[in-house]
Design brief:
The complex is a heterodimer of chains A (346) and B (389). By secondary structure, chain A is mainly beta. Chain A is 1% helix and 44% strand. In chain A, a hairpin with a 2-residue loop joins strand 2 and strand 3. Chain B is built from twelve helices and 22 strands. In chain B, strand 10 and strand 11 form a beta hairpin. Classes of the chains: A mainly beta (346), B alpha/beta (389).
Chain lengths: 346, 389
Amino acid sequence: MDEASANWVTLLSGNDRGGGRVVGRTSRPEQLAWKVTLPESIRTSPVLADGALYVTSLDGRLRVLDANSGRERWSFAAGAEIHSTPALSGDLVLFGCDDGAVYAVNRTSGQQQWKAQSEGAIWTSPSVHGGVAFLGTNDGVFAAIDVAGGRLRWSRRFDGRMHSTAYVTATHVYVGCSDGRVLALDAATGADAWAYETGDSVTASPAVSDGLVLVGSEDRCFYALDAGTGALRWRFEAGLGLASSPAVAAGKVAFGGKDGLLYVLSVADGRLLWKSESIRPIVATPVAGPRIVCIQGFFGTTQAFDLENGKVLWAAELGGSLGSTPILTDEMVYLATYPGVIYALR
Amino acid sequence: MDRRRFVLGTALGSLHLGLLGMPARAAQGEDPVGSLKIDIQAPDVPASPLGMPGLFPGRVIEVAHAGALRDGRVFQPAVREMLDRGMQALTGEAAAGDAWAKFVEPSDIVALKVNPSGTPTTTTSIALVREVIRALGGAGVPNRHIIVFDRNSNQMELAGYHNLLPVGVQVVGLDRRWVVGGETRPGYDPNAFAEMNCFGERETRSYLATIVTTGATKIINLPCLKEHNASGVTGCLKNLAYGCFDNVARTHLYPKTYTNPAIPVLCTTAPLRAKAVLHIMDGIRAVYQSGPFAWNPEFVWEAKTLLMGTDPVAVDRIELDIVERKRRDVGAPSLFDHSPEHLGTSAEMEQTAQKNRFYREPAHIATAARLGLGRYELSQIDHRRLQAG
């Protein structure tokens, strides 16, 4: 496991959006291994680690399911609905909640270790680096919290909602804000390093690759900014707004658009390598590996493509609304839906 | 408690209403499908001069702006200008702030009813919602007193209301619980409902939103200018009725729909009627076929206009004429057409304007006028056209 995965620095671990797993599988799943229907909707992405799926849901529960059988190992009841994808750090699983709290729960026992209260609902996923969790709230607050005990290190208030999950390095935090800016903050103090103003809200979560901060904006443009200075390196214009967070693999960056297309660009220069046929609006984050990219369209379609040329490898029609990131392992494919169903396909 | 019974012939349209518990007279001149009985129960809210048809019955302001779209994007500064000009024309006030103050006070809890049903280009535009929020702020209503809502939280999320609107504004999908003053409430009020049996369905009640019954003191309606495959158009009336009550899809059973009379009757429910004080229709992009979702961009046109008024019937009547005119221009059948040869599947409806899933029922707008919600006849409508920009 590389440093990024070990420290879980961004939504679904590293830039591959693979939940810490290497995405190698390209073959079509052939059969249903198991299916679990939760009492309420899933608006987040499951996270896979150590043979367990960590799933948050609108019934206010974090559940841990056995990845092989779907059997529930334990669940934890938070104070309200959960729109925050969980993050893992050592023995803890962290997530935000609509009650404005960040919860830290022991991964083995399911016991709450601490709870840190903020003001607005938290829809972002905590990003952990160097023992600190970084996350934003719907009320425009962005905070740094000690993973060890939940103590607030620093917080900032912005003029827009924070729906973007931060990407954290040893020195900087990169995050989007619905005030239209991509922000680089000093990770130790929260002070401004730089800010880049796009034409509309930035609700997607940035990825960082090859010294570039990569993120889309509701202004329809996808931006590559110099991670050190915030200078624009290249920009690509899609057909409609971009709320899908990018995934990076093999020198390519993939993201969906509200125009229904999956775009794959060259990280180096922003050149369009290929785009998919429309699968209707996409707001979910893709998962990408060296040979595959897989994404959910909002109206029920999950499609996997050859990352190199855009050839469709397989597709699944699950029904209901879709907004989560698939998990692809060598053995299984895990998919979650708004109706609250988790599919494990073999 | 407001308890009333409606019995309405669905086509030829005799109409009776009375207090629940009193014998309802049989409707006259019923069509072959028969009449629909609707019993309403809701908290009694005193009638307000601001309630439908509101301060300016029959007045409709149509504001166009050639620059409302720039490179295919809704241009927010143009929307601001359209909104300000329209509000001034509607109220006769010289200043937009004074115009808004006719409808809201700083202490109000203002609910904005949006339309998120459609492709990302055919929902109530984020730019319009942002500008209404800005204008409400100018009238002293803080963001924390503003709720943006619709029935479906998934559609709200897709449209971006949850993450693109200013900090402090509460965004609620009625299929979820919501929190006000630290108290969690269900989306729908168990004590406020419409009882009707359309096609023998098992669940015959449609419940009214708690935002309408107890959450908000004022409602500003922000529908879209769109054709609707069942009701003819989805305008002010449908955006309110089918966006504030649950379990309403049951009023359609191919090819028949009971949107007339269900839409206007639901709009007469006391809290909804009293609190809906202003209607601003987003016609920056408009739809003439396969609404409300309009997956085929061929059926979306850039009308670059807003329709504004306090009278939802009058606004919807003008909308109806706009959509009818557009359909005539492209050779599509009238919304009033009930020819069997124009019936088709959903797929056909999305491919050609010659086909539709239902016999549309745009006469719901006229029914609303007969229920006292506003004016339908063009001779009674003061339609003013403005050009901004």
